[in-house]
Write a structure and sequence with these properties.
The chain is of the alpha+beta class. 49% of the residues lie in helices and 24% in strands.
């Protein structure tokens, strides 16, 4: 019979501690980390979709006010038969929403420019694009929206709001999308990014106006190309070479998307530090537990058993 050695005791204790204590702790930690990460991503998803929703609501609210202003000046023109006088206070209010307002006499094809900027006096640009009826703004079937287009007069992307009265006049208000973006960008804060794109992915409102001038778009990026039509979406993808979380909401009244981005690593960094701290704590705990358990087993269980075995062996051999 081979006598037990201290090395064999340590090996047995190490295996017991590893299989019954350390491995379960590691598995438990991995499960907690996985569930925490999923929970954090779910919270982030709800937050980003909420930001995109706030932005889309802000866009519709902005357009509601623009329609009201266009209606006031169009009715004023119909009642007086001439361009309405605009005070400095009214000029500031109207210029907050519109780059220009134009009246078109459909009988004579004459255009009357309500230009707000003196340097643009006499300049008129009327696009001939398909437009869509609006049924959401006060139930008026006479209000239509022209999809965003580039205006050579405004030298930027604008959105057309068309107001019709009978068969005589059509009033077109050009909403400056740069001002619209400044109005809605409050819903996000750095490092989040917010912009508007049309249904083809073309930038129509962005903090970097050069993207619009260069006619850049996101239509060929997987996260945009694979979205479901008209439905909110949340995904992870690449944008301009960086990995980001992306949320988007469709704004049906003008057929555009409000897109919110947040950097993936900015979200992961605090999670990484928290999890690293937990890993260190778990490792220290496991080492301390292993040593204390090993000493306890050796002192109160294995050592008495060895002494008893040695005593029995001496009794049987008579030595």
């Amino acid at each position: 019979m081979t006598e037990p050695t201290k090395t064999s005791i340590s090996t047995v204790v190490r295996k017991i501690v590893l299989s019954n204590i350390i491995v379960p702790i590691i598995l438990f930690f991995l499960i907690v980390v996985g569930l925490t990460f999923v929970c954090q991503v779910t919270i982030l998803k709800n937050q980003m979709l909420h930001k995109a929703q706030i932005s889309s609501i802000a866009v519709q609210d902005y357009l509601d006010h623009a329609v009201k202003i266009l209606r006031v000046y169009s009715i004023s023109f119909l009642l007086t038969g001439q361009k309405p006088d605009v005070s400095s206070e009214e000029h500031y209010l109207v210029s907050t929403y519109f780059h220009n307002i134009v009246a078109l006499d459909k009988n004579s094809n004459q255009t009357i420019n309500f230009t707000l900027s003196p340097r643009d006096a006499g300049k008129t640009y009327l696009p001939y694009f398909p437009f869509q009826e609006s049924e959401s703004l006060y139930g008026l079937s006479t209000v239509s929206f022209i999809p965003p287009y580039y205006s050579p007069i405004a030298k930027t992307m604008v959105l057309g709001i068309m107001q019709r009265y009978g068969s005589d006049y059509v009033f077109l208000g050009e909403v400056d999308l740069r001002r619209l973006w400044r109005f809605i960008q409050f819903s996000t804060k750095p490092p989040d990014e917010l912009f508007l794109v049309d249904n083809f992915g073309n930038y129509i409102a962005h903090k970097d106006i050069q993207k619009i001038y260069r006619q850049e778009n996101v239509g060929d990026q997987d996260w945009f190309a694979n979205r479901k039509p008209l439905e909110p979406f949340f995904t992870i993808g690449y944008h301009e070479g960086s990995l980001v979380f992306i949320a988007g909401r469709y704004i049906p009244v003008i057929n555009v998307w409000a897109i919110v981005l947040t950097p993936f690593w900015n979200f992961l960094k605090p999670v990484y530090f928290a999890f690293s701290f937990l890993v260190v704590c778990c490792l220290v705990f496991a080492v301390v537990l292993k040593k204390s358990t090993q000493n306890w087993l050796a002192k109160y269980f294995i050592l008495p058993f060895e002494l008893f075995s040695t005593y029995v062996k001496k009794g049987l051999t008579g030595r």
